[in-house]
Amino acid sequence: MSKALRATLTAAAVVVIGYVALAFWTGRAVPAGTHVAGIDIGSMSREEAVKALDEGLAERSEAPVLLSAGEGTEAEFSPADVSLDYSAENTVDALTGARFNPVDIFRGLTGRPNHKSLAIEVDSQALDTTAESLAEDLSVTPKNAELAFSGDKPEITEGKNGREVTAADIVDAVETQWPAQDGKPLSAEAEAVEPDITDAEAQRAKTDIAEPAVASPVILEAAGEKSGEELKLSPKAIAQAASFVPRDSELALELDGKALKTALFEENDGVGEEAQNASFEFSDGKMSVVPSKDGISAKDADVQKAVDAALSADDRRAEVPLTAKKASFTTDDAKNMKMETIGKFSTPYSSQAGRDTNLKVASGKVDGTVVQPGEQFSLNKALGKRTAANGYRKAGVISGGEMKDDYGGGVSQVSTTLFNAAFFSGMQLDEHKAHSRYISRYPEGREATLDWHSIDMAFTNTSDKPVVLHMSVSDGKVNAEIKGEKTLEVEAGKSGRFAHTSPSTVKKSGPSCKPQSPRGGWSITIYRTMKNIETGKVSKDQFTTVYSPVNRIECD
Question: What's the number of domains the chain is made of?
């Protein structure tokens, strides 16, 4: 080996040995400038760094974990719920030891600020479950822009963006940011979500659909009965029967055929009127028959189609078929009915101005209704849309798990009371849905909320005789009674409560925020036994009601 080569190898060996020595020397302590969870442990020995982390994180790691995904909403959970803890030893071990990466050696020598993650320990399955619940609380549903008539003028209610937070976003925030500094919440990523119906779409519908619809009256020419008669329908009537519903990310005009037909006959005296079945009215506890009337009428769907066609026509004219219509339930039919109480129920209420009005209006719309054999009774159809024009006032309703004010608040009590009367009458229970939370004035599991757009209470008269519905509000109670020919003895039963669920805590801010106490959720199964009085034959049915937990709401 030549002298020059020997010298080169020797120099290289010295450099390697020096580099290795430097790697071990810089790894004896935490790199200068290192911060973990906001605590500066740079240049500390392993023991010093572990002690600094334990002292700095002792209280913070036991505090409730606050999360936020945007202004105005917070949620929290306890570290103990998911076995959340940290390891100072594992954290420091990952930061000390020999460093062979030149970048790490440079940082260890220069002290450039460097933020490192804390090594945490957690029950991953429990955290995933908690994160799914919290993601729902922190997410905000976007609010569609809306279009509706005020009188005969279309008005827009602007939409609002929402936000979506996923369980993965919550888990990531916990794993990378916990424990929080200075009591600040962990920040979860959130994706902005636009409403399906934007303000621009609402404006388009206003300009292209709503304003032309009420620009002038429409003329409907009678066909069939009273052929050739012209019926004029006012812009106001069209506006009152119109609504705009989301359809494929656009607002579509939807006309209420029944409302149009009613307005058509009201605005054109003598041209047509509905046949009226016999019904009943109750006064001072006494029942009397309201006589039937024959009439000239039209089908709701035919009137709706005719108005639709007229709105699309250049001359705003269309043809509507009118037909003679006889009452299907006559005065004699009503007088010959057998009138026994086949089912009744009452629920108590505390007097509140708006709610009292709604209870009386809704009960009055049901009172005296006759349900024929095989006919389905729909409470939504009987009550109509809950609006000021229909006599309803604003009162408390449960919406999204929280109490809010809206038109028709309280009609769910009418629904629940009538549902129980139908239950004990042996009616076929076609549709009902319990409130999301349990309300103690109702029998647990046997109650029925109501929503004009999506939730009805409906039952079918499966007997071979008509029945009459009687409802009243008196002496602090809502009362429902079904009269007819009694053929069944009905008994109710129930299981114990099961499938218990726990509430979460949600923090909100703003003037509309209302504090709310937490309550657990649970399920219950309701049984019904029906015995035919004449034959002794017994039949049974059942359904299960699920009550969601009520989250604690704290207002800043």
Answer: 1
